[in-house]
């Protein structure tokens, strides 16, 4: 029986405290201390917590909840996020590359000299092409100036030289037309393949400007063994045919035998690029 008044008193205090909390939450921030005292004094008296002068002298202002959102946690690097791959670039302005380009520039003069019958100049340009071809390879290996562009420029220079000699000598009637078709047909197919491999191996984004930016390596062409032999035989054939008017020797039969050999090695070397797995290497891929 004695518990009922206590329970009733406890419930009353709980209700009063709830009302006090509600009023405190609704009190404007600009109210002064006397206004706060008058607002909460009735509730304190009902809960037997009547304010005293000492209590209100030690009154501490309420800390109003801030409307600003809580600070966001610091961004932590995701473990699954992989670092961006650094784009590969190389120095293409090397002595071997410049020598190779000079050999390409000399090809039009070589073709003109053959068509004009100036075989002395043509022979001199052939010697220059052969010397620079050896020097650029030696410098690249000796001073570690190999570049991916060099692996493309060097065979391209050889093909341009060979194309110039093949076309001009065939036009002069010094080279059989069927052999010229075989040599040129192989080179055209290899050139188309080189453009294709350049496109598929170029890192994204694949734009026109990036396609022709050869400081961005993509694919490396590796000549096969038979291709090297074929190139050497072609150079011997074209060189011998070019200087033959300057010699007092009859080279008709030796040149015919060499022409048949070059025709066979040209077809063989073209097929070697098709069936070889190491002829083209994509840069950055194992």
TrEMBL record:
The lineage of its organism: Eukaryota, Fungi, Dikarya, Basidiomycota, Agaricomycotina. Coiled coil: none annotated. Keywords: Lipid biosynthesis, Lipid metabolism, Membrane, Phospholipid biosynthesis, Phospholipid metabolism, Transferase, Transmembrane, Transmembrane helix. Its main location: membrane. One of its GO terms (cellular component) is mitochondrion. Pfam families: CDP-OH_P_transf. Belongs to the CDP-alcohol phosphatidyltransferase class-I family. It comes from the Eukaryota. GO terms for molecular function: cardiolipin synthase (CMP-forming). Gene3D superfamilies: 1.20.120.1760. This is CDP-diacylglycerol--glycerol-3-phosphate 3-phosphatidyltransferase. GO terms for biological process: cardiolipin biosynthetic process. It is found in: Membrane.
